[in-house]
């Protein structure tokens, strides 16, 4: 059984129900339809980013489930001191609750991604329910910082291949997973989290972590310094997939149809 499947079994009981439907569907205007190493987007696999094939020593550091009112500021301090930009996959209801933290993320050069409104496992959800989770979060981020997310990460990695293609066709948003997972959600301790990140990292990698776990936040100085010592440079997810920097783009919400 894969680690992702184990995560689904262990955490699936905590998945929330779909939020009420919001009539207005929203997407970012003017996104490119392709990304590094990909041709036309014809399937859910094509619309999914796990890693980018490259010889360059670049990685995308990503954090899920925030923002957290106490831990996220600590993490932002760690990143700012090192001049590192990361990508935060925020839960929409948290984004709506802590808009000032999103504003700080953008001011310090970070990217904000979509991690659904209420963090449900999307397996078994209708297309309308998936889009509702995405649209509510896009709106919350847009209301906080004036631009919407351009990529989406499903909780637990759970989104059917067909729906990944649907999401890209309906909202121009690729599904971003990961290639380096320290399994910090199992709470193995900060030193283990840092060691796993540094040991398993590779060029073009997408590193998964959570800014809602205190041990993970404590692990970051060692992990980031260890990656830098190995010669890795940090980029946002948009940059990794060949798009312009998200925090410098002029993106706006436009009406869309599924």
State the gist of this model:
38% of the residues lie in helices and 13% in strands.
3D architecture notes:
The protein has 258 residues and is an alpha/beta fold. The protein has one domain: TIM Barrel. The chain has nine helices and nine strands. Strands 3, 4, 5, 7 and 8 form a five-stranded parallel sheet that branches. Strands 1-9 form a two-stranded antiparallel sheet. The protein has a two-stranded parallel sheet with strand order 2-6. Strand 3, helix 2 and strand 4 (87-90) form a beta-alpha-beta unit. Helix 7 (190-200) packs parallel to helix 8 (214-229). The longest helix is centred in the middle third of the chain and has 19 residues, at 127-145. The protein is globular and about 40 Å long. The model is unreliable at 1-24 (pLDDT under 50).
Q: Which oligomeric form is depicted?
A: single chain
Strand content: 5-15%
How do the SSEs run, as a string of H and E?
HEEEHEHHEHHEHEHEHE
Query: What is the molecular shape?
Result: globular
Largest sheet: 5 strands, parallel
Helix content: 25-40%
Q: What is the mean pLDDT?
A: 88
Please name the CATH architecture. Answer: Alpha-Beta Barrel
Q: How many DSSP helices?
A: 9
Q: What would CATH call the homologous superfamily?
A: Glycoside hydrolase/deacetylase
Number of strands: 9
Tally the structural domains: 1
| CATH topology call | TIM Barrel
> Quick one: CATH class?
Alpha Beta
SS-derived structural category: alpha/beta
From the alpha carbons, calculate the radius of gyration and give it in angstroms: 17 Å
